[in-house]
Predict the structure.
Amino acid sequence: MNPALTIARRELAGYFQSPVAYVFLVIYLLLSGFFTFMVGGFFERGTSSLEAFFIWQPWLYLFLVPAVGMRLWSEERRMGTLELLLTMPVTPLQAILGKYLAAWLVIAAALALTFPLVLTVNYLGTPDNGVILAGYIGSLLLGGAYLSIACLTSATTRNQVVSFIVSVVVCLFLLLAGWPPVTDLLVQWADPAFVQLVSSLSVMTHFQSITKGVLDSRDVLYFASVIVFCLFTTGVILRTERAN
Amino acid sequence: MIQARNLTKTFGPKVAVDGISFTLEKGEVLGFLGPNGAGKSTTMRMVTGYLPPTSGEILISNLNLATRPVAARRLIGYLPENAPSYSDMTVEGFLRFAANMRGLSGESAKRALGRAVELCFLQPVLHQGIETLSKGYRHRICFAQSIIHDPDILILDEPTDGLDPNQKHEVRSLIKSMGRTKAILFSTHILEEVEAACTRAVVIDRGRIVANGTPEDLKARSPEAGAITISTSKPMDSALAGLAGVRKTSQLENGRLRIYPVEKLSSAELVAGLLAAAQKAGVDVYDIRIEEGRLDDVFRSLTISDTKEVRP
Ligand SMILES: Nc1ncnc2c1ncn2[C@@H]1O[C@H](COP(=O)(O)OP(=O)(O)O)[C@@H](O)[C@H]1O
Ligand SMILES: [Mg+2]
């Protein structure tokens, strides 16, 4: 088997042997339910769609995804296993991809467990399932982007808490840069073209456009570039760390 | 199997390894001996491909580590300092992971695991979580990981650290017996270990090699080497009076006397002379022997403990 997959399997087992994955799944499902039904007004909307669910994803992920990703490298560094891992016959890229994949699967599992929502809207009405599918793909990409940021920050420190806080801050920044209340405020001071540019760098802009049901290649490309950039930088950090 | 040329590693202003070269062949057990902070671990981290050297070149079985890192690392088993392992796994899970990472799966992984478990006496804890185990066990777990793929080259950073005397003995015999078919590099600051397991030793101090040779070669550098210790019924003074070839003597406890031969006289010749002189003077000799020299004297004369100062 490819060493990346061996690493992914070990990592995944690690998530499910410790309470991390279960705590994450339960909290995610509870909060998703709470926001969708209580705050989002799922029933009051009177439309059969999952808009009330997807609209909260960027905010939920803001804390939950860094919690999943914070241990990726900081734990290896703390335990000293990084030295063990990187002296085995794997390339750093394989190691990064393997670990990243495992954490992404945890997020995907959480998303998959929200399937009762899909059944519910389909039972209550006739939603556009294409839009729902786009919403799920968008969520997966959004989670993947946040996770790549958490992966990067965890490579910089042996302390999981530091890794968590830094990645939340970075994700928050990427989120707010395109959040309408913030952009509306920015337009009052800055050149609209500049505000436009900043918000085009935001996960919010791209996530919202996907959840509207149009899977535009530019949005997919945006998330893909964030992920590639962060994972690549993780590799650079791990290398310079050793080269000193 | 290993050729290291002019390895240098600097951490900021600190020169941790300063131009180390050595080679290691199959059938050899090479001991890295040196005080803490000498640069043993840093050298091993470079040889295993974990740290890129600041300058210098490493060939593993003629593969350049810088350009063929994965192929080169396949040939190596490595026990890092402090024997890290994934503490959230069971012993079996961890070793299976190590086997899979080494490209072993199914039956061959099972066999490799069984062999490593047996060699490292891990049977009793096989299904236990690593975090529940003692330091001695963790050490052997990481050791088992390093030999799981039966590598040609073994690099062991303080393999007996944290073990009790029985376990130390086991690990030394294991190293010695595996050394017949592999190339083994191990580091230690315990001198008996070098004598017990190495075919060759390198003394490292402040990032440089200060001595290189068999344990016997090194011991011969001791000021005590070749001196004669004699234990007699009466003081030897009168017997020694007429004897040529004595450079100096020193009185030890329990009435024993240590006699140093002059440079051009061999120890055996002096022993013969001493015995004859003792007989003539009517002194009974209870015990007489030639000192091999002690490694710790050599070690202390060659190295300076814990380097704190930063050299430019
Ligand atoms: N990552 C590092 N950053 C800075 N200095 C280091 C690092 N690793 C080792 N050193 C320094 O390099 C020197 C050699 O260390 P090391 O190779 O661990 O010695 P040994 O294993 O012989 O005890 C020490 O002075 C140590 O402080
Ligand atoms: Mg060391």
